[in-house]
Amino acid sequence: MKIEVEDKESNSHGNRLAVMLIDVQESLLAGIKNKNKLLDALNILIQSTNFFNLPLFVTEQVPNKLGPTAQSLVAELSNIQSIAKSSFSIFGCAEIREKLFNKKISHLILSGIETPICIYLSAIDALKAGLEVTILSDCIGARRTDDESIALSKLQHAGCHILPLESFLYGYMGSAEHPSFREISKLIRNR
Amino acid sequence: MKIEVEDKESNSHGNRLAVMLIDVQESLLAGIKNKNKLLDALNILIQSTNFFNLPLFVTEQVPNKLGPTAQSLVAELSNIQSIAKSSFSIFGCAEIREKLFNKKISHLILSGIETPICIYLSAIDALKAGLEVTILSDCIGARRTDDESIALSKLQHAGCHILPLESFLYGYMGSAEHPSFREISKLIRNR
Amino acid sequence: MKIEVEDKESNSHGNRLAVMLIDVQESLLAGIKNKNKLLDALNILIQSTNFFNLPLFVTEQVPNKLGPTAQSLVAELSNIQSIAKSSFSIFGCAEIREKLFNKKISHLILSGIETPICIYLSAIDALKAGLEVTILSDCIGARRTDDESIALSKLQHAGCHILPLESFLYGYMGSAEHPSFREISKLIRNR
Amino acid sequence: MKIEVEDKESNSHGNRLAVMLIDVQESLLAGIKNKNKLLDALNILIQSTNFFNLPLFVTEQVPNKLGPTAQSLVAELSNIQSIAKSSFSIFGCAEIREKLFNKKISHLILSGIETPICIYLSAIDALKAGLEVTILSDCIGARRTDDESIALSKLQHAGCHILPLESFLYGYMGSAEHPSFREISKLIRNR
Question: Would you tell me which of A32, C148, D22, D181 could form a disulfide with A141, CB atoms 3.0–4.6 Å apart?
Answer without folding.
Answer: A32
